[in-house]
Each structure stands twice: as structure tokens, then as C-alpha cells.
Amino acid sequence: MDTELQRLQHLGFFAIFKESYNIIVSWWRKLFFQIFLALILPFCFLILANMLISDHLSGKIINNHVNLDDTMSFYPSYNRIKRELVVQWSLLGVFTLLYFLIGLIGFYLFSISAVSYGVACFYAPKDTNFKQVIRVVPKAWKKLVITYLLYCFIQFVCIVVFIALIAICILMGMARQIVLGIVIGVIVLILFIVGLIYFNVIWSMASVVSVLEEWYGLGSFRRSLDLMKGKKKLNIWVYMVFQVLFSVVQGGYWVLAGLFNSSLPIVVYVIVAIFFFVLFLGLVLLGFVVQTVLYLVCKSHHHEISGKSSLGDQLDGFLGGYGRMGERERSAIRTSWSLMC
């Protein structure tokens, strides 16, 4: 095994973050900067826009529901409030659907595909550029969409089951079995949180597997579980640290948003808002790189990478015949095709 790839299997918690940072700021930075501008930056703007629009509409919906409860049905304002609620719920549904299709299915999954492929090319090593990445990753993106939809479906089922169990616990409390209901409710809540964290850790690995290997859907989740053996704690700790960091940044943003109408100077508000947004952008890019490095660490741990050539062959297989050809061969094919036509 090549020394550089052999070194990956021994990377610890802090070393993974350092390795990911070095990849971003290395001579490969031009590629990641282009991916950042074309995919990650619009994705983060969509996240921010979705948060602002959803909060604004949700606030109006809550206020209208409160007003509707305090208004008699024979008042003229009653029907007006009901019409406003219909419009507001419709707008919230449309914006949520657009965010899911454009923000998540589009920019989010495409960003994962592009960054994962770019990091893999870094270790191959395999010369690539942004145009080649954009030409190659749609094939992986299609597989990743299937995996992500399955991830969303499983998560939805888990949430429905959790709500049903909590509802049962509430009914037990209403039936004067308060202590038993609270105990079962706490157990269900703990199991749900732990299960949700572990499932998201598996998804993080499965997303890279769907990009760099032939697996997708349920197969990518099984493959992720196999790769995580021996490195499960490392994957969980990395995921938890990122969740804490994102929570801190998001919490800082909400605190800042609450101070918007205060006596805080607008210049200070804008500077701090830009700081939090840039920090959020950096975390998103670093997170995408880290999850690919983790994938390669797990793969090296299981001795599934025999060297740079094997990783390059894996990417060549992913690229297909056209991607393996050099520019001279492609030019010759185009010339021959034009002559035949």
C-alpha cells in the first residue's frame, strides 16, 4: 500500500480534521473553491432563505390560529383569518417542497457528489478540474438521490413511530398511570435520539459510498455498516462535534436575529451576521470533506485500498470509458466520427 494511503488508516479524531483542512487549502484549493462557489454557496443561501421564510410564515400561522380561536364564527374577520391561513399554509408547503427539490435534492446532494469525487481524486492522485467533476458527478448523483430518498423515508417512519409511542405514553398518563407513562416516555425519547444519531452517522458514510462505489439505496447502508466496523466510535464522535458546531453557529444567528430590532448599530449587526454566515459556509465545506476522508480511513482500515493505482482504477470504473481516455484519444474519436458522418 502507498505510504500516503497507508497513513490514512491510522488517522485519529484531530488528525482527520487537520487532514481535511490541508486538502482544502492545498494546491487542490482551486477545485474546491469552484465547487464552493457553484454549489455550496447557493445551497447555504437556500438554507438561510428557507429558515427566514419558514419562520416568518410559521409565526403568522400561529398568530392567525390564536386569533381564530378568539374570534366568533359569525364575525366577518373569522372567514378572513381562515382564508389567510389557507394561503399561508399553501405558501409554506410550496416553499418547503421547492427547498427539498432544489436545495436538498439539487445543491446538497450534488455538493456531496462533487466534493467526494474531488477528495478521492486528490488521493488517487488523479488530475481533474471543475469541468470534469461537473461532467462526471451526475452519474453518482442519480444513485445518491435514491439513497437519500430512502434515508428520508426511514427517518419519516421512525418519527411517526416515535410520535405514536409518545401519544400512547400521554394516554397512559391520562389513565392515571402517570409514573409508568413518564418512564416509558423517557426510555422512548432516549432510544429515539440515540437511534437518530446513529442512523445519521450511517447516512453520512452511505452518501460517500453511493458516490464512489457501485452501491446505492439499502445496499449503501449495509456497506456503510461494514466499513464502520472498528471505526464506529470515531465516526460518531466526528458527527457529534459537527452537530455541536452547527448548533452553536445557528444559535448565534438566532441570538443575533433577536437583537435586530434592538439598539445594536446596523453596521455591527451586518458584520456579525456575515461572520456567522462565513463560519457556516466553512463548516459545510469542511463537513463534506471530512466525511469523505472518514470513508477513506475506514476503507484503509479494512485494507480495501492496495495503493493509489487501485483507488485510481476505482474512479476510472466510476468515470466509464470516456473518463479514462486522454484528450488525444477523445480528439481522435471525434475526428473519426466526423469523417464517417
List keywords for this structure.
12 helices, 86% helix, transmembrane helix, 341 residues, mainly alpha
What overall form do the CA principal axes indicate?
Answer: globular
Mean model confidence by pLDDT: 82
Number of strands: 0
Provide the succession of SSEs: HHHHHHHHHHHH
Helix share bin: over 70%
Separate helix tally: 12
- How much of the sequence lies in strands comes to under 5%
Distance between the termini: 47 Å
Largest sheet: none
- What count of domains describes the coordinates? 1
* Backbone CA Rg: 25 Å
Structural class: mainly alpha
Which stretches are low in confidence, meaning pLDDT under 50 for 5 or more residues running?
320-341
Keywords: Membrane, Transmembrane, Transmembrane helix
Transmembrane segments: 31-53, 148-171, 178-199, 237-260, 266-298
